[in-house]
Amino acid sequence: MLKIANVKVKLNTPESTYPKLISQLLNVRTKCVSNVMLLKRSIDARRRDIHYICSFAFSYSGDEQALINSSKLALSVYHEDDFTIPKVQSDEKVVVVGSGPAGLFCALSLAYAGMKPILIERGKCVEKRKQDIQAFWQTGKLDPSSNVQFGEGGAGTFSDGKLTSNIKDKRKDYILKEFVKAGAPKEILYEAKAHIGTDYLEQVVLNMRETILSLGGQVLFETTFIDFKEKNGQVKSVTVLKDGQRQTLYCDHLVLALGHSARDTYRLLYKRGIEMRRKPFAVGARIEHKQALINHNQYKRDDLPLKAADYKLAYHDKSGRGVYTFCMCPGGYVVASSSEEGGVVTNGMSEFARDGENANSAVLVSILPEDFEGEDVFAGMNFQIELERKAFELGGKNYHAPAQLVKDFMEKKPSDHYGKVIPSYQPGIRFANLWELFPTYICEAMRDGLRAFDKKIKGFSNEDAILTAVESRSSSPVKIVRDENYQCNIGNIYPIGEGAGAAGGIMTSAIDGIKCAQIIIADKNL
């Protein structure tokens, strides 16, 4: 097959006309082009003539090399990704802690290899977890072990489900295909900014669990990792707490896919001698606009058959500190994401259709290790906790979140009414002055960033936009040190994923999990 890239395609072009389109571009007969497959599609909205830019694979019945040599277009031989997990003969026991993207794909890969992993998760299965989350959003009753941070699928399950990544890796297409096999929309295979949506993710992670079980693996929910034992510098077993009882699981390998919110576990590991260090992270608030405002700014027209528009903005203040938007959720919702009693945390979530009335995104300010005095490895984590508790106080001590109109934030005064944007955060918001929540340097950087963003998207800082705080869990403030074989300073313990400071987002975390599995099974296809 051949591949042709950078093809301009009009909106609403039927798939049935793709062979004709390609044949016209190549100046060959239509009957010579068949088996057309859309590989990648992105929106070009730089001019009024908005269209798609596509890449296709197709079969050509003539001389392929002659066509490549004669064409001035981006034409090449198409090589389909053939990444696979090899089968191995091994009786070694592997325990994987955490069922977010890193842990889930690590366990799934080990199961494909025939190693029968044990996947443990402190939270509940996704069916029960969804009920607990809905109850929290409706009533403010928090379950510290079953919430947006903890439970089957990890924090990504109740998010926008973004699958974008700037890294080049042969596992990316494999991951997308696994998601589709588990029930994700097939569009993720070719959309340049692919996302699954939380409504699909619930079923996808359940189906991936069933695959692990069908291959002989185990999945243990409501099971908390509380310790490990080592001998001669190698892990030998883990201790878990289940139904109030301590249990021992023997293992030859221990994978720690903890997520960025397992603060108690990180403190435990540090006490047990696992080497860690501080790393940069970011904090801020969620900003909401009418999605129609974002669509009009990005598309310049309101009559197009396109999904809700997104954006990605960045700014550096006069001191060099970064301010940027993160996890933008078109047509989405700001959601309560607390996992500890007495703390308020916000995040963004979208369903696949992205058809909500509001757009939201985190507006974050970079925090550096040197922003904290002393050598405490958990200084950043303690800072997060302090902000979350302050937000709880400002919100009224009932998990309502402190919120402020952007216009009032700029003027350092609390708001007393909504504009046209009604905040989507549940169980509710309470107006407050966010200058009382954050240190001055964060507020000043955020204010300058919002002014800069308004120049890029007209109306970004208008009087209707609203900030809801606090967004504190965008990434882990600590990194577990590991070597080129993914092992920390105790043998056969593998810290992976976003929580270990080794990845960021669903796709990179899943890649990290697969790589770890390959190392454990001694796969040479790294």
Plain-language structure description:
A seven-stranded mixed sheet has the order 14-15-18-13-21-19-20. The mean pLDDT is 95. Helix 3 packs parallel to helix 6 and helix 3 packs parallel to helix 12. The chain is an alpha+beta fold and 526 residues long.
What is this entry, summarized?
The chain has three domains: 76 residues, Alpha-Beta Plaits, CATH 3.30.70; 227 residues, FAD/NAD(P)-binding domain (3-Layer(bba) Sandwich), CATH 3.50.50; 192 residues, no CATH class.
Total beta strands: 23
Describe the largest sheet: 7 strands, mixed
Helix fraction by DSSP (H/I, runs of at least 4) = 25-40%
**How many individual helices?**
12
Second-tier CATH architecture of the largest domain: 3-Layer(bba) Sandwich
Mean pLDDT: 95
Distance between the termini: 26 Å
Strand content: 25-35%
Low-confidence stretches: none
Which outline best applies? globular
What are the defining features of this structure?
single chain, 526 residues, alpha+beta, Alpha-Beta Plaits, FAD/NAD(P)-binding domain, 3 domains, 7-stranded mixed sheet, 5-stranded parallel sheet, 12 helices, globular
Helices and strands in order:
Blueprint: E1 2-9, H1 18-26, E2 33-44, E3 51-60, H2 64-70, E4 75-77, E5 94-97, H3 101-113, E6 118-120, H4 126-139, H5 171-181, H6 198-214, E7 218-220, E8 223-231, E9 234-242, E10 245-250, E11 253-256, H7 263-271, E12 276-278, E13 281-290, H8 291-299, E14 314-316, E15 322-329, E16 333-336, E17 346-349, E18 358-367, H9 379-394, E19 401-405, H10 406-410, E20 429-431, H11 440-456, E21 466-471, E22 478-480, E23 493-495, H12 506-520
Parallel strand pairs: 5-6, 5-11, 6-7, 11-23, 19-20
Antiparallel strand pairs: 1-3, 1-4, 2-3, 8-9, 9-10, 12-22, 13-18, 13-21, 14-15, 15-18, 16-17, 19-21
Helix pairs in contact: 3-6, 3-12
